[in-house]
Design brief:
The chain is an alpha+beta fold. It has a single domain, classed as Creatinase/methionine aminopeptidase superfamily (Creatine Amidinohydrolase, Alpha-Beta Complex), CATH 3.90.230.10. The chain has 4 helices and 14 strands. The strands form 4 sheets. A 5-stranded antiparallel sheet has the order 7-6-8-13-14. Strands 1, 2, 4 and 5 form a 4-stranded antiparallel sheet that branches. Strand 4 and strand 5 form a beta hairpin. The longest helix has 24 residues.
Length: 255
């Protein structure tokens, strides 16, 4: 069911957005050569405790997950595209790391993701990250009253097409509010002018993720981590966006 939020409710979501942004910023800053993924999860866990927030991940067990997630942040490294389960891995120079985090503050949820390079970057990796960020910005620009969901999806897909990246349609954005994943689904490609008409009060997570040479993924033996079928690196970007009469509000904007 699609739910629309009042302006007052969108204001009530702002603390969750600020908190999620702060965790993404802190874990991004902490990620360095020699840092263990479990240390990043521990940092996010401590920030949740200090804030009095609630993790959206630790007990999360959807149909596509092998078991309850058990951690509080997704850490996807190199060919891991989505849902990377933190494990005993020490980051190396040149690793591509995606961080995806959602939490509830005062009963409201926000969700965000970013991709960084640990240590020395490679030009192709920087181009991939830049494309996901452009696609996210293009999708947000279309998140306006009177537009349609296809306008958001097409804007994301156009950026992928410009870079000659294929697009996986199995996983994309989603509604956000009292829970982390709700209606509507926000595909990362589509046709403009088609689909759900966007109305004030709709709050969605927009999240392009690209693999340069394939749209096929498989589930790692951990039951969660989704990896590219070719072993090629993947990048992911995400913000929680409220559609309002005055335009889109990025609730998880980072400083």
């Amino acid at each position: 069911m699609i739910e629309l939020r009042t302006p007052a409710e969108i204001d009530q979501m702002r603390p969750a957005g600020r908190f999620v942004a702060s965790v993404i910023s802190a874990t991004s800053a902490a990620a360095d050569v020699g840092v263990n993924l479990l240390d990043l999860d521990a940092l996010a866990h401590e920030m949740i405790r200090a804030e009095g927030a609630t993790s959206c991940y630790i007990d999360y067990h959807p149909s596509f997950g092998g078991s309850p997630f058990g951690k509080v942040i997704c850490t996807s490294v190199n060919d891991a595209a989505l849902h990377g389960l933190p494990h005993d891995y020490v980051l190396r120079d040149g690793d591509m790391l995606s961080l995806d985090f959602a939490a509830s503050v005062n009963g409201w949820v926000c969700d965000s993701a970013t991709t960084i390079i640990v240590g020395t970057p490679r030009p192709d990796d920087l181009a991939l990250i830049a494309a996901t960020e452009r696609a996210l910005a293009a999708g947000i620009q279309q998140a306006r009253v009177g537009k349609r969901m296809g306008d958001i999806s097409a804007a994301i897909g156009d950026v992928a097409a410009e870079a000659s990246y294929p697009v996986n349609l199995d996983f994309g954005g989603h509604g956000v509010g009292r829970t982390m994943h709700g209606d509507p689904h926000v595909p990362n490609d589509g046709r403009p002018g088609r689909g759900l008409k966007l109305r004030a009060g709709l709050v969605i997570a927009i999240e392009p993720w690209f693999i340069p040479d394939t749209d096929e993924i498989y589930t790692d033996d951990d039951g969660w981590t989704l990896r590219s079928s070719t072993g090629t690196r993947a990048a992911h970007a995400e913000h929680t966006v409220a559609i309002t009469a005055a335009g889109p509000i990025v609730l998880t904007a980072r400083d």
